[in-house]
Amino acid sequence: GPAVPAVPAVAGATLRVPLVTGGDIGYANLDHAASAPCLDAVRSAVDEFLPWYASVHRGAGFASQVSTRLYERTRDVLRRFVDARNGDSVIFTRNTTDAFNLLAKALPRKTSVVVFDSEHHAALLPWRGPNVRRVQLPRTRLAAVSVVDEALAECPQGPRLVVVAGASNVTGELLPVAEIAAVARKHGARVALDAAQLAPHRRISLRELDVDYVALSGHKLYAPFGAGALIGRSDWLRAAEPYLAGGGATKLVTEEAVVWNSGEERHEAGSPNTVGVYALGVACEQLAAHWNAVGSHEAALLERLRKGLASLPGCAELRFFDAPVDRVGTVSFVVDGFEPGWLAAVLSAEYGIGVRDGAFCAHVAARRLIREAGSEGQQAVRVSLGLGSTEEHVDRLLLALRQIVARGARWEYTKADGRWAP
Ligand code: PMP
């Protein structure tokens, strides 16, 4: 057949995990949507950098200069990664949650916010008060755009912001971001894109989408924890109170007054996560160089997974939209008669497969979809594919589920503190 392009390798591809039934097995990481394994290239870049790291913007020492150069260069890497406009700010944060809390604090007074109830809590909760309109995500993409249109039409005069995820962390479905942005423009509203689940899988262009802000997390982008970014229009960010008060955010402090920085540093008080930021940049560069391979790798695995789940007795997949839409490799499902937490425990203990169970920090929407899938419970199982996933992992999962549905688990499981364990 045709040559399959190689995807960047992940560290941990050879990890083995113990089985309760005896022995050990290669770990099948089907939980990329929670956190993705570190890329090999990221690991070696970090390894090289570790002896050199120092605080940034803090003097003429050689190590501090190296750190400062890499840190500032990574702003350009991120700017390119999301195809930002000239003049857009790139503020380093801890993660997506931190990025949206920063943006929420930087909004002009009385900004009206429109947000779907399907959003992850990180995108749903930072906006509070009477100016926030939470709207239910309808069952077609077209209706989703109309709902935003109607909600914006009802907003009072003044600044407006629409918050929308690029891809759902529950169903993997892509939302009609460009269409929503076009409608937002009509109402003079800005758009903030939650790219936590989209950025690891698809090229993003702020210019093409005509989106104003984007938030993302390094740990979902094949870099370690602790670094993320908010990228977008500078005016509100420059005018806002600093997100954190402290060193690095100031130009000048006297007995009487503080002059804050006006650039990105304004919101980055405290010694930054130099290593994490560097790792995030390397991961973005790697992904940007391999989008075609990433896309075909994940599409093939997703098709295999969904076909298998569709033929599993009693299995119902969660979906927001009636019609099939473009999606990333994240699939949540319930299996009639089996508790999701128990299934996840058996998959882990007897098959060495890591999946997620629960309501995925998107309680409102997850519960609705779980009900619609015919389940009495409030939870589902989520399988999420990425660069650490292989055909063998998917096949092992499908075989495991078929065996469990047909004849139960091989081991006894008990529930303590809400969690099943062998
Ligand atoms: N948005 C979405 C869609 C997510 O899936 C997540 C993480 N599960 C977040 C935001 C929050 O990311 P973080 O925990 O890295 O802040």
Automatic annotation (TrEMBL):
SUPFAM superfamilies, sorted: PLP-dependent transferases (SSF53383)
Lyase in keyword set: yes
Chemical reaction(s) catalysed: (sulfur carrier)-H + L-cysteine = (sulfur carrier)-SH + L-alanine
Xref: PROSITE patterns: AA_TRANSFER_CLASS_5 (PS00595)
GO molecular function, one term: cysteine desulfurase activity
One GO biological process term: antibiotic biosynthetic process
Keyword Phosphoprotein: no
Keywords: Antibiotic biosynthesis, Lyase, Pyridoxal phosphate
Boundaries of every Aminotransferase class V domain copy: 29-397
Required cofactor(s): pyridoxal 5'-phosphate
Family per similarity comment: Belongs to the class-V pyridoxal-phosphate-dependent aminotransferase family. Csd subfamily.
Designated name of the protein: Selenocysteine lyase/cysteine desulfurase
Organism name: Amycolatopsis echigonensis
